[in-house]
Amino acid sequence: YFKILLIIFSGSIIIYACSKTYLDKRPLGELDEAALANKKGVEGLLIGAYSLLDGNGGNKSFVGSAGSNWTYGSICGSEAYTGSYNGDGEVALERFNSTANSESLASKWGTIYDGIQRANDVLRIMKKATDISEDDQKHIAGEARFLRAHYHFEAKKMWNKVPFIDETITYQAANYHVPNDKDIWPDIENDLKYAVDNLSDDSYMGAVGRANKYTAMALLAKAYMFQKKFAEASVLLTSIISSGKYELNELYGDNFNPATKNKSESVFAAQSSVNDGAEGANGNLGDAFNFPAPSGGAPVPGGCCGFFQPSQYLVNHFKTDASTGLPDLVHYNDSDVTNDEGVESSDSFTPYSGPLDPRVDWTVGRRGIPYLDWSNHPGKDWIRDQANGGPYLPKKSIYYKSQEGKYVDNGWSSLTANNINLIRYADVLLWAAEAAIEMGSLDQAEAYVNIIRNRAANPAGWVHTYIDPADPSKGFTTTPAANYFIKPYPPGYFGAQGKENSLKAVRYERMLELAMEGQRFFDLVRWDIADTEINTYINKEKKLRTYLNGVVFDKNCDQYFAIPQLQIDLSAGADGVRQMKQNPCY
Asked: Among candidates 19, 56, 60, which has minimal Cα distance to 278?
């Protein structure tokens, strides 16, 4: 079913011929390098490099290449079920038994290295231009090297040992066959340091979505965090925080609303747009399947395809203590938040009445709670197959019904103008908290975490009930939709708990704040706790999702994905020796 939908959807959206005869011809839109070796041409190439941040580059599996990393970061990170069935590539990834022939992994690799090539084209062709000032050259090079670092970073966290490709390597050169025998962190750092040194405090010409100095600092800090270089990361993160350049949005939900995107919390985001003459190609294609399944009755947002269903494990994390308003870092998964699995939409159901972190209902669609301005979530009627994927739906990538025609593509209702948040200011604060703990500053870490929790505790930012449930267009009351109860950590809490428990609190907060945003799996790997966390998740969830029976996360094999076999084969030189080596166990 998944593959049939994929073929239909891809064939309808991507406007190009795909016969072998066509591919043997020179593309009609191709320009000679000489025509691009000027400021306008180089700027166009740079925008082309940015355009792959969303993962949509015409590859076969736009799901596998999605810039949101919903499969790799969230599903593999125990936050969600695929929502599809055994036999689909994403389910194989969820079960940690994908192979080097995975279409999804091939698409991800291809998109990443296409992005790298585009960044390199900017640097290479700019050297031939004569009408670009020295200052502009530095700024353009800073952006191109920032993007090159981002794409290599994506490859690094997916596959670990990957080739670093710079502008001296072309697809026609003999040295194209590059091995993956070295650690590329130093190369990523060098690109980002150049970007920090050469980009200005604001985006070039005020253009929304383009990297500035602080964007580069944030990505460099993230690279340091992945390498456990906490002192170096702390210096950068402190500079970003003290700059006053960013702040949390007042309302948590504004981070996932196309009408309020690119506000003060957005440090780095893949830009999306619709109804712009591109026939949906600039919409958030990678998340196009992550909407409620068609019910055949009342209008359903998106209309396709019921994938990316939040796990019970994720939902249980949002429980809070009835007396303190804090999460239970130890016993959160001992009992489940009540759900409606097995209950018909026509039957009565009472939602969970216990105390919850209010971020749950901006993250998860659950029965009886307003699903933006569509209706109270009706339960089973909106779920593709409860027995397979559970009772919950994703929410952060969903648009409001009132936004149809403006932030939703008129031709494809599952293509939206919702940006993909790659780095939010909340990320910066939580990295800073983590680094502070590692360096012994527990009180400072607590202060950073409490900035996050205080925003979540603002009642204005909670999900509220409808004025008229029969007509959600009339708006919302000031009555919370559930029993929301959240408090900041009391003064001195982290200090009293000590380093290890404070780290648990920060890691837990990252899951609450960034849930379903494609981050969790990579966090678990960099913290070196992926095997413990994921196997704990599987041991309980397999009782709910039978397709997880027999699944075991092997630390020696599963922390990195299979390098696509085609890429290994293509790395062979004239002597037939493959320059790239496969990851263990594949």
From this structure: 56
Give the C-alpha separation, 103 to 97, whole Å: 13
The backbone torsions φ and ψ at residue 578, rounded to the nearest 5 degrees and listed phi first, read -75, 125
Q: How many CB atoms lie within 10 A of CB 51?
A: 16
In three-state secondary structure terms, 81 is strand
Residue 121 has which token pair? 């084209």
For the chain, what is the radius of gyration of the CA atoms?
Answer: 23
Cis peptide before 304 (omega within 30 of 0): no
| Cα(422)–Cα(444) distance, integer angstroms | 25
User: In the structure encoding, which two tokens stand for residue 493, read together?
Assistant: 């809490």
Residue among 402, 432, 397, 363 at smallest CA distance from 79: 363
- The Cα–Cα gap between 403 and 25 comes to 41
Per-residue pLDDT tens over the stretch 491-549: 999 999 999 999 999 999 999 999 999 999 999 999 999 999 999 999 999 999 999 99
Q: Taking the chain, what is the end-to-end CA distance rounded to the nearest angstrom?
A: 27
Q: Which two tokens stand for residue 140?
A: 């353009």
pLDDT digits (tens, 9 = 90+) for 26-68: 444 566 788 999 999 999 999 999 999 999 986 567 889 999 9
